[in-house]
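Query structure, 462 tokens:
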């Protein structure tokens, strides 16, 4: 019987790459992928567990899969769940969702196809298998404790099926994190940092470019720490220099850097590279020194301000994107107002914000004083985003009548395309609606901006 898999990928782009690796394994092992779950007999859910909202989204997806399974009358259907939710607490997942047939940890990503085939065939043969299982048994949930920290990292030889639009792709240059910020559970889920070699990344980039990809996005938990764990300790700037020398017409973007690791060499590369877009994604989390210290970010407010002032003065062409965390335990109204004032004063090009989520196993989960109520944290987040909306509208209004280089990524309808500028990363930043008659496939173009909204632009191709 054919194995036909419907895949649900939740969370960030780093998780999406894991999904693509699993899909590559499915295809190479003769399995099929289905866009419509009603056409599938296996549903795979790749979960996120970064914050409470992400876990809730994962739980809802699993419940929907269970209903999908129950709706089958004569067809055997299998549910597999993987990703951070499973890695973080396998016993809890097994107890909460006994209807799930297979749980896969992060080290199981390259083996997902064989695990799914084994359990699917055992069901076809009327065996009773319902377990996280690296061999073939049918253990009970009580047999399993927490999973060890993962060590897996894919490379350029790993089968991978990209599921992003054909114009762009993500390349994971490292996995894991060594920072241990007080609020973040990622190091306890994804493990210590482990970087790929420069040669492996270069080869993957060559493969993607040969297949028509026009924008490559480098991702990691902390891209700016890339290479510190390798014997020859290549820096991110070294990697970018090697990739920037590749031939062809393409953009290269770096996501997820840490302010502690921003160097002049890196900034020079980002600002003046041949293929590198002038874009700095640097989550800061806060500006108040006491809050930054409590968060264990490794930089205080004055140092953060000095870094930003230096970047803006020396590299005005750089688009600066950041993320802030509000409602951290102990954050006073005055400290939040300091963050709000700073946001308005600096005028970030791109900004995201999220409210504190108490994560089990993190130092912040043990804090008991100065707790900010959930509703108040949400109000602060919304206020910060409202301030940024005004800033974004001001930035975009200034672009009216100007000509911008863009990448046309997806055709909406005849003569109308979605596009992104150099300052717009996939999924998180704004888009342009471009009137471009005669364009048949994704391409680079210059466009003239004709209308502006806070997070969207309209333009015509030049």
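Result returned for the query:
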């Amino acid at each position: 019987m054919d194995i036909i898999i419907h895949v649900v990928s939740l969370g960030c782009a780093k998780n999406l790459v894991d999904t693509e690796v699993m899909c590559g394994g499915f295809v190479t092992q003769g399995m099929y992928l289905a866009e419509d779950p009603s056409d599938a007999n296996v549903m795979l859910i790749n979960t996120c567990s970064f914050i409470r909202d992400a876990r809730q989204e994962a739980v809802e997806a699993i419940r929907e899969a269970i209903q999908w399974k129950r709706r089958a009358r004569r067809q055997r259907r299998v549910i597999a769940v993987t990703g951070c939710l499973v890695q973080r607490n396998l016993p809890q997942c097994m107890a909460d969702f006994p209807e799930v047939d297979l749980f896969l940890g992060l080290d199981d990503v390259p083996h997902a196809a064989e695990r799914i085939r084994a359990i699917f065939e055992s069901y076809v043969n009327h065996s009773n298998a319902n377990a996280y299982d690296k061999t073939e048994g049918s253990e009970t949930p009580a047999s399993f404790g927490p999973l060890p920290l993962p060590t897996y990292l894919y490379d350029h030889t790993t089968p991978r099926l990209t599921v992003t639009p054909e114009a762009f792709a993500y390349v994971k240059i490292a996995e894991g994190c060594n920072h241990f910020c007080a609020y973040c559970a990622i190091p306890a889920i994804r493990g210590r940092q482990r970087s790929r070699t420069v040669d492996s990344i270069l080869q993957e980039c060559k493969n993607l470019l040969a297949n028509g990809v026009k924008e490559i996005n480098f991702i990691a938990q902390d891209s700016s720490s890339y290479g510190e764990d390798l014997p020859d300790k290549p820096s991110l700037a070294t990697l970018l220099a090697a990739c920037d020398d590749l031939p062809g017409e393409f953009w290269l973007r770096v996501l997820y850097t840490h302010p502690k690791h921003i160097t002049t060499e890196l900034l020079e590369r980002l600002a003046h590279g041949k293929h590198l877009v002038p874009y700095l994604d640097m989550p800061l989390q806060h500006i108040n020194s006491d809050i930054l210290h409590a968060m264990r970010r490794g930089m205080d407010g004055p140092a953060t301000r000095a870094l930003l002032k230096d970047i803006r003065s020396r590299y005005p062409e750089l688009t600066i994107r950041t993320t802030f965390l509000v409602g951290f335990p102990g954050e006073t109204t005055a400290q939040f107002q300091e963050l709000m004032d700073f946001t308005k004063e600096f005028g970030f090009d791109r900004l995201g914000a999220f409210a504190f989520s108490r994560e089990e196993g993190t130092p912040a989960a043990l804090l008991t004083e100065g707790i900010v109520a959930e509703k108040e944290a949400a109000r602060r987040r919304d206020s910060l985003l409202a301030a940024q909306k005004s800033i974004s509208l001001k930035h975009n209004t200034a672009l009216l009548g100007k000509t911008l280089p863009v990448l046309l990524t997806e055709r909406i309808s005849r003569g109308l395309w979605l596009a992104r500028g150099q300052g717009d990363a996939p999924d998180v930043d704004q888009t342009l609606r471009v009137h471009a008659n005669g364009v048949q496939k994704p391409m680079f173009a210059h466009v003239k901006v004709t209308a502006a909204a806070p997070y969207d632009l309209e333009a015509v191709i030049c």
